[in-house]
From TrEMBL:
CDD domains reported for this sequence: ACAD10_11_N-like (cd05154)
Name of the protein in its database record: Phosphotransferase
Keywords carried by this UniProt record: Transferase
SUPFAM superfamilies: Protein kinase-like (PK-like)
Top-rank taxon: Bacteria
Domain (Aminoglycoside phosphotransferase) ranges: 27-252
MF GO annotations: transferase activity
Amino acid sequence: MTGERTQIPADLQAWIAEVTGAGQIALEQVSGGASRQAWFVDLDAGTDGAQQLFLRYDPREPRPGSAFHSLQVEAAIIAELHRHGVQVPRVIAAHPSAQAVLMDRVAGETWFRLIKDPDEQVRTAQDFIAKLAAMHRIDARELRIAGLGPAGPVADHVRAEIAEMRSRVDRYGRPAPLLGFCIDWLDRNVPDYDGPTVLVQGDTGPGNFMYADGVVTAIVDWELAHFGDPMDDIAWLSLRTVQDTFTDFPARLAEYEALSGHRIDETRVWYYRLFAETRLASMNPGSVDTRASAPAGSPDAGNGLIYGMLHRRLLIEALA
């Protein structure tokens, strides 16, 4: 690989030393983290011994109106879920201004397809479903997450996000008729649901949890989390199973129903499949244009073309 080695700014390293009390810090960038950098942080914390932590870092400023939370908001979500017993990493500290969060390092793999033993696949998938169901049993009104505000009726949260989608597409400044059609359809067809509001992870499922020996060790990636309908997360899960193995999906849904107390509503799941794909597309309206492609020479050109086509297909299927 060519080019300069990525470095963590000196002031950020000083912050890590300050919040941990470490005398020595070793940093190693690792793959993962999607649009944000991921770092292993090894500390010599003096009398407290060695510590193995994990740093999420984004050198960019948060984009106003983005569907992605700032890392400070994501850290607040994770910390509150940890307080409620959800299987997430413990947050050590969030930087007061830079986009950086320091957490415990959790052992495990990410990609579900790496599990070769069918029995272990089933155990891991069942454990994830159990943990998702447990999270959906939490009364969202009890969650105190400043960046999300109070939990209200599901329809209010859905309409607020539809308005955000419309604003993002308007800021794009070019015609986006397909996205406009999707947004209008979503606005006209908000589900008539008056059940419990839950915290929706968003983009939940294989690839966004860690596992080891048939057990989920941490649910990760909360940058799209929001209050909403439990079927919203089931829709995301169904979309992610298109990209990665996840055992027998109907069996997992039956387990979710039994453990969560939420009945699977296929009509609402399809609504939220379109909701999810439209939300993703609204962040980059050009991505639904078949003529759009990654910049010439981009190392992500191949992945960009593959995932762009995949998500265009998923959006059209959900709309159909």
